[in-house]
Amino acid sequence: MSGRALVSDAMAPAPVPGGEPLLRVEGLVKHFTTDRGLLGSGAVLHAVDGVDLEVRPGEVLAVVGESGSGKSTLARCILRLLDPTAGRIVFDGVDVTGLRGRQLAAFRQQVQPVFQDPFSSIDPRWRVGHSVAESLNAFRIGTKAERRERVLDLLDRVGLDPSLANRRPHELSGGQRQRVGIAAALAPAPKLIVADEPVSALDVSVQAQVLNLLADLRRDLGLAIVFVAHDLAVVEHISHRTAVMYLGRIVETGPTGAVFRDPKHPYTKALLEAIPHPDPEHEPAGGGLQGEIPSAIAPPSGCRFRTRCPVAIERCATEDPAMTSFGGAHDAACHVAAAELTAT
Amino acid sequence: MSAPAPLLALEHVHVGFATDEGVVSAVSDVSLAVNAGEIFGLVGESGCGKTTLAMAAMGLLPHSASVHGAVRFEGRDLVGLPEEDLRRLRGDRISMVFQDPMTSLDPAFPIGDQVAETIRAHRDVDKQQARARALELLAGVGIPEPERRYGDAPHRLSGGMRQRVVIATALANEPALLLADEPTTALDVTIQSQVLDLLRDLRARLRTTIVLITHDLGVIAQICDRVGVMYAGQLVEVAPVADIFRAPRHPYTQALLAALPSQQQEPGTLRVIPGRVPNLVTPPPGCRFAGRCPSVMDVCTTVPPLAHETDAHLIACWLSEATKRAGAPAGAAAGGAA
Amino acid sequence: MSLAVAVAAPPRRSIWRRGILSSRKGRIGFGILVGLLAVAVFAPLIAPHDPNAIDASRILAPPDLTHPFGSDALGRDVLSRVIYAYRVSLGVAVGSTLLAFLVGVPLGLYAGYHGGWVDTAIMRPIDMVLALPAMLLAVALIAVLGPGTNISAIAIAIIYMPILARVVRSSTLVVASQTYIEAARARGTSHRRIIASHVFPNAVGPAIVQATVLMGFALQIEAALSFLGLGAQPPTPSLGSMLADGRDVLTQAPWVEIFPGVAIAITVLAFNFFGDGLRLRLDPRGVAS
């Protein structure tokens, strides 16, 4: 047990009944080569090193991890802002991994981003309304008059006064700017939002507003959301399923309640333990994770987590653990946990 | 009373900044006391003035800032103290740790030397002795193989390691008081947990008093003994950590805790605080939270004084009986005069 | 640090209005430049005499009421010559810098935005030009192409283009790393449109500031070239050639040298002041070195 309060599954947001996944990522790999000059090749950064995941329509999948986990790179690959080194991304049944031109544009309309920093995610010289309308203009959606209408409608939908359309970003607060970013993402009526730490830069009270907004939008518009975050309280509150990343791999995935209540992977357990709870009565189970996150340039052999793992065994150094199913779509990649499963 | 005098006592501190738009009232009439040996948390959202308050206490604000009131450290008022005297205190009796370890460390110098430099600035020791002590400190903050890493430049270390070096520098001369401004905010969660353990351990070993400034209520809950809550430059509540979380009295504290996401709530139902932080150039008279407070009353246009709800729990809110007794609005005595 | 955050509801009056005219320096610079521009444009109306009219009776005559700046070795009115010389000098200064700007800025934008081999392909040749000493380059070009005002302008433009390209490339690198550029790509905006509508407006500020300062230098380079006989050819008056002429008669008739010299100094100062004022509006954090 991780020591967190028991969560009643009836309270957790009800997942949408399954069907074809809207998004399927298969074996995604993204390596970066650092320059070393004219002679000799540079070091390879294994940012994402073999990731599989699925998102169903209307579902919120949280991707959590610390720095070096590759979660932001994963998000950008899904958005096709980066080209994967290997692997496939299948959206709505179509392989979008290598799309270009008009087909890529069609994909872009369906998958939109929300970024972390409200201060750098909107062009400071553009008026707010223009930023919201950017995708409408780029994809040539509707007539000029229709676009204007839609912008006002979108601003209203995200809880902003439509008259703000003529203001410049610096006249708005961080929370308002984040809403503008959300409005801009909703403009082309996407089916999937990829949100990279959308509330991390916001104060608690503002964060609450934006989380409520995202939850309402999801419900009203049937959006699927890939929610990249490091704040587990936020994740537990809003997501149906959670995937935990470490050094470019997914180490555990499953329904949020199951992952939080009954984590299988030692890293997930450590992560849950390390989060400071806003509850002074809560006693941390002691023995926090030691050591630093290894470099993604030379990840440890076998299981990448073994250098910090409290229960690592010999096998962990030589063999990369495969995903084991623990029932109920709850999987984890750990030799020790898998052994415990077969033992029971 | 026979209780020992507090190590740090702020009395009616006001801080204003001159800007193009006018004077920003960043801190308004803050009085609080920090006792020796405790870990005092100062919490609030961005712009509430908590960093400004700490910087004012250290005398680190720019010249455009005007500081009124008293900051008594070990009995001495730091406000208006000549720069020479303040410099002697900083790094020696009072130290500060900031959020971003990369800008607190000089990127051009080896980390070991930076620790040694702080030692030699305040102690009459030679290079060898300073180096020996620096190695001791690096080991004490958990840097593995300090001999080998002594000569490393800061960029060779990870964020967590750098922050440890910064802490080592801050504690080099065994200060009585450590001001830590968001020391773990920029760190990964698992590293944050290590650094918080380190701070707790150092407090136990060295009896350093720590003032921890943060917006993260989780961090507050895990490490602080007492907590002060700030809003828009005003101090609204001070209490032992258990009381703040279990029985917050001030409407702002209550709203803040209610806004925290948790698994207990349906998505879309987090309780939000309506309205926005007031403009600090033209702050509203009286309690600055009044505009967003669900229980606002007419009398809230007057500044509520910080009053003892119980022996240990202070609150600045007209809802509280203690506040009413401490300062009736119609011109009675009591503190809080701006 | 908490300063900007403390003012929670920024007033409606935006910082964009506090522009060039808010600093006294900027106002002074701007005023002088406007005045000088008017002088250059309206030279035929303002100049009291024909700048090329030789008057044997007034050789090296000191300043008086009809000739406030005195007369030179050929009896020509120095004031009128200075006024007409402004046309050449300002024309070359502004024209050359403008040309450098129109060529250099797009190159810098593309290099900074695309990076990789595009960056290398564009910037290596530019860096090589930058490595050559400016005056030497100008003289060499003129040696090949022949002297004259237009050639001077082109030579200066060639010297300045790398500088502006580098400045824009630097600020483009900063802008291109901003999240709103990624957002623009995800919203379907093409690279060309991103450069034109996102990168250019946000990155061009430092280049404009640099260009105004360069104009002041361009004036001096033109003067130096004319001084050496490589720029404006007689009888076209140029501040530089007037300086050359004045050297010979410096002890007898210092006004022939002084007034063109002061004219150059005031203009360069005006450009610098104006540039400082612009910096406040366009480049407050000093991206341009």
Key features of this structure:
heterotrimer; A: 344 residues; alpha/beta; 8-stranded mixed beta sheet; 4-stranded antiparallel beta sheet; 12 helices; C: 289 residues; mainly alpha; MetI-like fold; 11 helices; 0% strand; elongated
Describe this structure in words.
The complex is a heterotrimer of chains A (344), B (338) and C (289). Helices cover 31% and strands 20% of the residues of chain A. Chain A contains twelve helices and twelve strands. The longest helix of chain A has 18 residues. The two termini of chain A are 16 Å apart. The N terminus of chain A is likely disordered. Chain B is of the alpha/beta class. Chain B has two domains: 204 residues, P-loop containing nucleotide triphosphate hydrolases (Rossmann fold, 3-Layer(aba) Sandwich); 97 residues, Rossmann fold, CATH 3.40.50. Chain B has twelve helices and twelve strands. Chain B has an eight-stranded mixed sheet with strand order 6-7-8-3-9-10-12-11, with helices on both faces. In chain B, strands 2-1-4-5 form a four-stranded antiparallel sheet. In chain B, a hairpin with a 5-residue loop joins strand 11 and strand 12. In chain B, helix 4 packs parallel to helix 7. The longest helix of chain B is centred in the middle third of the chain and has 18 residues. In chain B, 49% of the residues are buried. Chain C is mostly helical. Chain C contains eleven helices and no strands. The longest helix of chain C is centred in the first third of the chain and has 37 residues.
Task: Write the topology of this structure.
The complex is a heterotrimer of chains A (about 350), B (about 350) and C (about 290).
Chain A: E1 23-33, E2 44-55, E3 60-64, H1 71-78, E4 86-91, E5 94-95, H2 101-110, E6 111-114, H3 128-132, H4 134-138, H5 144-157, H6 174-186, E7 192-196, H7 204-221, E8 224-229, H8 232-238, E9 241-246, E10 249-255, H9 256-261, H10 266-274, H11 315-318, E11 324-325, E12 331-332, H12 335-343
Parallel strand pairs in A: 3-8, 3-9, 6-7, 7-8
Antiparallel strand pairs in A: 1-2, 1-4, 4-5, 9-10, 10-12, 11-12
Chain B: E1 8-19, E2 22-34, E3 39-43, H1 50-58, E4 65-73, E5 76-77, H2 83-89, E6 94-97, H3 101-104, H4 111-122, H5 127-140, H6 146-149, H7 159-171, E7 177-181, H8 189-206, E8 209-214, H9 217-223, E9 226-231, E10 234-240, H10 241-246, H11 251-258, E11 307-308, E12 314-315, H12 321-326
Parallel strand pairs in B: 3-8, 3-9, 6-7, 7-8
Antiparallel strand pairs in B: 1-2, 1-4, 4-5, 9-10, 10-12, 11-12
Helix pairs in contact in B: 4-5, 4-7, 5-7
Chain C: H1 3-6, H2 24-41, H3 43-46, H4 78-114, H5 116-131, H6 134-145, H7 149-176, H8 179-186, H9 191-227, H10 239-248, H11 255-282
Helix pairs in contact in C: 2-4, 2-11, 4-5, 4-7, 4-9, 5-7, 6-7, 7-9, 8-9, 9-10, 9-11, 10-11
